[in-house]
Amino acid sequence: MTSRFPNLFLIGAMKAGTSSFYADISRHPEIFFPEKKEPNGLHGIAQGDQAASRAYADLYAGRQEIYLGDASTGYSKFPMLPCPAEAASVQREEIRVLYMLRDPIRRIERHIAHHIGNGETRSSALDVFENPEYAFVSAYEMQLSLWKKWVPREHIMVFDLKEYKENRNELIARVFDFLDLPVLDLASLDGMNINRGFSRRSAYRSRLRFLIHSQAYGVVREYIPRSWRRALAYGLLPPANPPDVNLNKSEVAFLCEAIQALDNLDAPGEAEAIATFELVRARHIASAGTMP
C-alpha cells in the first residue's frame, strides 16, 4: 500500500472560514482531505513522535489523488504551537500552502466568542490584554514569515474571507489554477458553511469531550459520514451559544499596535514574539496610567 504524507496545507487562520472553504475544495476529485479536518499531524512529525506520525500517515494510506490535504489551523498559531513548516518542507513531494485570512479584529472577536461559547473564558473584559493568543493568531505576516523560511513563496497562496464570501466561485477557480488542477464547474455547487457560527455545538461543554477528542475517535470518524456526525452532534452535544463580541476602542487600539509590532518580526523565536507582545502591553498600560 502506498504511503504518502499530505502535500496541501490549509494552515488557517482560525475563525476565518477555513471549515467551509476546505469542504468546498475537497469536492475536487484530485484533492483529498480526511474527515478529521484538523489532524495537526505535522506537530507529531516535528516532535519526532513515531506513533503520531504513523497515525497521521494512516489517514492517507492508499490515496491516489494528486493532493492530499491537511486543514489544521494549529499550523498558524505560533508560539502557542510550534510552526511545523520545516516538517512539511522535508516531505518527498512539493507542497502547496493555502492561508485564509479575515479582518484581524473581526477574527479576534469571533475567536473570543468561540472561547466564551466553549466555556474557556467568561468575557472579553481584560482578556485581550492578558491572553496574547488573540494577537498572535491575527499577526498574519509573522505567521507567514515562519512558513516562508521553508516553503517557496510561489507555493503559498493567501486570500481572505471577504473575497470568499463575495466571489466564491472565482476564488476557488483561482485556487485550483494555483494547484495546476482542472477547474470544476462550480455553478451548481451550493455554498457551504460547516461551522455555522452561532448554531454550532460544543464538545468542550459535553461530558463526551475526552471521547470526541481522543485518538481512537479520530480513527473511527473517518468511517462516519459527515451528515451522521452532524446529526449526532445536534442530538448529543450542548449548543456553544457564542455571544456577539464587540471590542471597545481601547482593546482595538492595543490589538492593532500589538499585531503591527508582531508583523514586523521576521521568523521570530518564541521568546522574541512573547517579549514583543509584552512590550506593547507595558506601553499601553503606561500610557493609560492604569491597568486596562
Q: Overview of this structure, please?
A:
With 292 residues, the protein is of the alpha/beta class. It has 15 helices and five strands.
What labels would you give this structure?
5-stranded parallel beta sheet; 15 helices
Amount of helix: 40-55%
Please describe the biggest sheet, giving its number of strands, its sense, and whether it closes into a barrel: 5 strands, parallel
- The number of helical runs is 15
Mean of all residue-level pLDDT scores = 84
Question: Could you say which structural class the secondary elements and strand pairing correspond to?
Answer: alpha/beta
Question: Which strand order spans the largest sheet, edge to edge or round the barrel?
Answer: 2-3-1-4-5
How is the secondary structure organized here?
Layout: E1 8-10, H1 18-25, E2 31-32, H2 41-46, H3 50-58, E3 67-70, H4 85-89, E4 96-101, H5 104-117, H6 127-130, H7 133-138, H8 140-148, E5 156-160, H9 161-166, H10 168-178, H11 209-212, H12 215-220, H13 226-236, H14 249-263, H15 270-288
Parallel strand pairs: 1-3, 1-4, 2-3, 4-5
Helix pairs in contact: 14-15
